[in-house]
């Protein structure tokens, strides 16, 4: 754990984790994270409200979690994966991948909710950092592909297995926003594919005598 802390110190990833924890504590103290009504009041995603113009929910919902287990699961994965990605791509690129992928994931979830509403289903209240985390997963897979399958002690095969298992667990579980997962994953992969060529050019210039 000490090694993980040293890797995370003064990093964007650690700031994101701390923000998620602080928001969770604030919501817990003001009404509870298990209350859908209170989570909506705090900025959770809810398709009818987003449709009415409250687009900020696509962003704020990324920092809200339903219950302590939801928070712990997401933050442990983010501490592990986010540190690798941030060290590899830098703080700004990592922030773009995390927030950009999270927003796209939530947008995909919102569009799916609108479709369900048209079929007569009641819209769900959704929240969580998993769309942004899956964006980091998608980005890491593309990065590993560019880096010939290895980054530090991570391999492409290991990441691919983790990604597939995570997606499968989501589809087999209830109350999981799979469209946010898939949207975030694809967005992260695309963002990494766009950002990587510039990173490679910078590395080449840095190696010149």
UniProtKB/TrEMBL annotation:
Membrane topology: Multi-pass membrane protein
Subcellular location: Membrane
Domain Peptidase S54 rhomboid: 53-196
Coiled coil: none
InterPro entries named among the record's database cross-references: Peptidase_S54_rhomboid_dom, Rhomboid-like_sf, Rhomboid_protease_S54
Keywords: Hydrolase, Membrane, Protease, Transmembrane, Transmembrane helix
Transmembrane helix found in the keyword field: yes
Transmembrane segments: 12-31, 62-82, 94-112, 124-144, 156-173, 179-199
Pfam families found in the cross-reference section: Rhomboid
GO biological process assignments: proteolysis
Gene Ontology terms, MF aspect: peptidase activity
UniProt record similarity statement: Belongs to the peptidase S54 family.
Name assigned to this protein: Rhomboid family intramembrane serine protease
